[in-house]
TrEMBL record:
It comes from Terrihalobacillus insolitus. Keywords: Membrane, Transmembrane, Transmembrane helix. It comes from the Bacteria. This is DUF4129 domain-containing protein. The chain crosses the membrane at residues 12-30, 36-53, 65-94, 109-126, 131-148, 163-187, 194-212, 257-279.
Length: 402
């Protein structure tokens, strides 16, 4: 296995730190506001502190002794509340002891799933411009980090096309963030109105059911002296038309930007997308290298084989002797050696689509690989063309990686 670089090690830490932010929003960031730049500074300095701790702290007991010191430092230098400092200390404790440090992209997808769920909850109940910008930063960190680690996994250097793709993604995502920020007042008003309609509808439904059951407003009282006003019970909820106390009420006025800026961003986004499609159109397609008659694939009768079945166990067998199976085995082995073979989480169909094989030929590939069935002469000729196309793709990748 190739040795992990600094970027590969620090990327999961940053991603988990962003998850920590959205987890703490309902706990203390909404009631005890933390400056946006201060949390970003903590997020950037935390990895350095983490690697320093990993160098000198070797036992769990030393980590337990370190936690009170981290709580004290957080309350002193960052002026955090006690709850926030303890939460950050527990996060470091989990990261130093309980968490597996091995690079695992499936773990990253799990972290991203939890983060997106927390972002959705925070936006609905604690809508703030800082939450929006932290969400944008989270997506950018995940995509760019995943891209970088994908290059690291393939053991190749970054090329011009990769730089163009990353720059295009960052530009488009930044433009989308500006557009969303410009529409902040409209989104806030929409969520407020939607929440008000939902709560009033629930109140009306409950009142109607009580009325049909024989209850009246005079029947609902406490000690027969104080009546309950059902509507007033919902005034404290978010987005009911009432303005909650605190500095969050000023986010609409602070986040609004001119419509001219929004229009300019939309125009810039359109130009970026146009440049991307023009660039993609100039790239040579694989179909130009090997001409494959579409009729050869469309005229084949696959019968019941088109019905997808789940393969519970992958059959193990020795190196094939038949021509088709031998070619399949050789290409799978060669692709794996070049770093473009199937990844652990990829299905057979996903890998073939990534390699550029056409959809109908995938069924032939599975038929040979797993079905233990022979192909007709027509199917064999078509499959030879697909194998030739796949062989060209692997050889081209091999020459570029040198």
């Amino acid at each position: 296995m190739r040795k992990q670089g600094f970027t590969t090690k620090i990327y999961p830490f940053i991603l988990e730190g962003l998850l920590l932010y959205f987890l703490y929003v309902p706990l203390f960031l909404y009631t005890q506001s933390l400056p946006f730049w201060e949390y970003l500074l903590l997020l950037l300095s935390a990895p350095l502190l983490y690697f320093l701790l990993k160098r000198y702290i070797k036992t769990h007991m030393m980590v337990l002794l370190f936690v009170p010191g981290l709580v004290d430092a957080s309350t002193t230098f960052f002026q955090f509340s006690i709850i926030a400092a303890i939460a950050i200390a527990l996060f470091f404790y989990w990261r130093l002891i309980a968490h597996d440090e091995a690079v695992d992209e499936q773990h990253d997808f799990t972290i991203l799933t939890y983060t997106l769920g927390l972002i959705f909850i925070d936006i609905i109940f604690f809508y703030d411009d800082k939450v929006i910008w932290m969400g944008i930063i989270t997506i950018m960190v995940f995509i760019c980090g995943y891209w970088w680690r994908h290059l690291h996994f393939q053991q190749r250097k970054m090329e011009g096309a990769d730089l163009f793709g990353i720059a295009l993604f960052l530009s488009v995502f930044f433009c989308l963030g500006l557009i969303f920020w410009g529409l902040f007042p409209l989104v806030s008003w929409t969520l407020s109105t939607l929440w008000l309609v939902i709560t009033q509808s629930i109140i009306y439904l409950i009142g109607s059911l009580l009325y049909l059951s024989g209850f009246r407003q005079s029947d609902i009282s406490i000690n027969s002296s104080r009546s309950i006003d059902i509507d007033s019970a919902f005034n404290g909820l978010p987005f009911t038309g009432e303005k909650p106390s605190g500095q969050v009420t000023n986010t609409v006025s602070n986040a609004s930007i001119g419509w001219e800026v929004t229009g300019g961003v939309l125009l810039l986004l359109f130009l970026l997308l146009l440049a991307f499609f023009l660039y993609k159109k100039k790239l040579p397609s694989q179909e130009e290298e090997v001409s494959l008659d579409k009729k050869d694939l469309d005229t084949i009768d696959y019968g019941d084989f088109k019905k997808k079945t789940r393969l519970s166990k992958r059959k193990q067998f020795s190196k094939p002797t038949l021509f088709v199976r031998k070619k399949v085995f050789e290409i799978e082995t060669l692709a794996l050696q070049q770093g473009i073979g199937r990844k652990p989480w990829e299905t057979l169909q996903d890998w073939l689509r990534r390699m550029g094989m056409r959809e109908n030929a995938i069924y032939l590939y599975e038929k040979v690989r797993y079905g233990e069935k022979d192909l007709s002469d027509q199917e064999t000729e078509v499959f030879k063309k697909e194998i030739k196309l796949l062989q060209q793709h692997v050889n081209q990748w091999k020459s570029q990686s040198k």
